[in-house]
Amino acid sequence: MIARYNFDCSLRLILFDAIEIIEVALRVKIINHLSQAKDSGLWYLDESLFEKMEYYEDFLLDFKYEFERSTEPFAKEYIAHTNWDSESMEGDNPDAWMILEVATFGTLSKMYKNLKSQLPQRATIANEFELYSAKELSSWLEAISVLRNIIAHHSRLWNRSLSKQPMNIKGHHDKWLKTPFTDNQKKKPYGVITAMLYLCNAVYPENQIKAKILSLLDMARDWHLPSCPDLYKGDEGTGAIDTKA
Fold first, then answer.
1. What is the b/e burial string over 66-93, where b = at least 16 CB atoms within 10 angstroms of the residue's CB?
2. Cα 126 to chain center, whole Å?
3. Could you tell me how many helices (H) and strands (E) the chain has, helices first?
4. Which is nearest to 47 in space by CA: 37, 57, 38, 39?
5. What is the pLDDT of residues 56-71, one digit of tens each?
6. Which of 47, 55, 104, 221 is the most buried (most CB within 10 A)?
7. Both ends of the chain: CA-CA distance in Å?
8. 242 falls in which pLDDT band (50, 70, 90)?
């Protein structure tokens, strides 16, 4: 039991590093592409860029809530010296580089998903993660967001069924699975971890996430933990973790 707990804790720490790589890249790409395209740091206030107004209003207020509770000096300085209103979009609002800097992964994921499908910047961001479809990237980000919340609350991850599942992709730039995800792979951590490895390789090829996972799995074999080979090989022996995915 103790060995299983230690394995799960170590796995969560490795995956949190992977999420950091993806989160920073996503934040930078959203800020840069939309700010340059609209020639304004306040583009996020433009409702014409987004699909569903109810979601748009929700994540804008989430942005403001997260900005107000931030301990970052630049956030505190901005709030103290401007006409700041945390409960509406009235008053002064900071540029995207400030307010998105303190936004959570979940809020960033919701914003990306709600960008209008015809926006070229939405597709560009997906392409820079080496995916051909913004819908596929959005699906993966949602699944990663659920995983992140599990990790942040120090909950058990290993062999858990997840409420959000990464979709199979139709095209990719880099190496990927020999066969699509099975239903079981998608609902277990295997699917989202494989997706995370792919995204990390796309934005930071020098990362050591896969090597750390493989090292942990080797130690897990010595601990004789059940189910560990499932992550290593996958249900159908596709070897996703054991490839460049």
1. bbbebeeeebeebeeeeebeeeeeeeeb
2. 12
3. 11, 0
4. 57
5. 888 889 999 999 999 9
6. 104
7. 30
8. very low
